[in-house]
Specification:
Rossmann fold, 2 domains, 9 helices, 3-stranded antiparallel sheet, globular, 7-stranded mixed sheet
């Protein structure tokens, strides 16, 4: 067989590529780069990778609705150290990889942000380039976070004096803080000996206005131990739109049904459930 020269081969490739715009060429080579990366992972891990990728797919499907291909890409990035997900049950992975893959300039609202790293639903988003708002009366380990921090207690109305359970700030239970009257589940048992503080409530409308938030908020995370319904009642749906919402329900009724009815009344639909959280997106998406 006649062996073609380097010049001939280069010319042969140049002809079909010449008609493509630069962005298309970038995507062309990016796609091939990822294929190469995946091949490296497979070669390095041999059969072990096949087994673990299968387990990863099952986990990613349950937590985040990722397809087999999406799961393969995400697993490769995690194993190569290109991304880390910090959330408890995959909330950050769901919004980052399922709802807004490739988005690097999104905006989030993290209500009940707690620890800046441990079980954080939004640290991964910041590491991708997102900006946002974090709300928690007792934030911890926020030194490497860039979100606007509001040390507030949110409710359906502003100016209400409430007793807030501090959760015991010297241990991991500290992220369980919440308004005494709305606490539920395991928290009710713990609060018998836990300290309380008094706060004056604000609404999410107040916070968004003070933060000069954009009218479209890509992701809202809501985890405030039973106070989620009241917080959502103070959200200005007429002024701001959500791209996605992860909200804790802990299987508590009628709270969970009230959240669903409220979100549907404002044009959102529940698309996923993972353990104690429900996930919503715009109904027309």
């Amino acid at each position: 067989m006649k062996q073609e020269s380097v010049e001939t081969r280069s010319a042969r490739w140049a002809v079909p590529l010449a008609g493509y715009a630069l962005p298309t060429l970038v995507k062309f080579f990016q796609a091939r780069l990822w294929i190469a990366v995946l091949l490296v992972v497979v070669v390095l891990g041999s059969g072990f990778v096949g087994a673990t990728l299968g387990a990863d797919y099952e986990k990613n499907q349950l937590c985040c609705q990722l397809s087999a291909f999406q799961s393969l890409i995400v697993s490769a990035k995690e194993r190569l150290g290109l991304v880390t997900f910090y959330s408890q049950i995959g909330q950050d992975k769901w919004v980052s990889e399922k709802i807004f893959p490739g988005v690097k300039n999104g905006f989030f609202l993290d209500v009940g942000s707690g620890d800046g790293t441990f079980n954080s639903n939004t640290k991964t988003l910041e590491q991708k380039g997102w900006t946002g708002i974090c709300v928690d009366p007792h934030p911890k380990h926020m030194e490497d976070r860039t979100c606007q921090m509001f040390k507030e207690v949110v409710y359906s109305e502003a100016g209400k004096r409430v007793r807030f359970w501090t959760g015991g700030q010297q241990n991991l239970d500290s992220f369980w803080g919440g308004i005494a009257d709305t606490l539920e589940g395991e928290a009710k048992r713990i609060i018998q000996t836990a300290p309380f503080e008094e706060f004056t409530t604000v609404t999410l409308s107040d916070i968004l206005q003070r933060a000069k938030a954009p009218r479209f908020i890509n992701f809202v995370s809501l985890d405030i131990e039973g106070g989620e319904v009241n917080a959502l009642k103070g959200f200005p749906f007429e002024k701001y739109r959500m791209g996605a919402l992860a909200v804790e329900h802990n299987y508590q009724e009628p709270k969970r049904s009230e959240i669903k009815a409220l979100m549907e009344s404002h044009g959102y639909k529940r698309v996923h459930t993972s353990i104690q959280d429900d996930f919503y997106v715009p109904a027309n998406s």
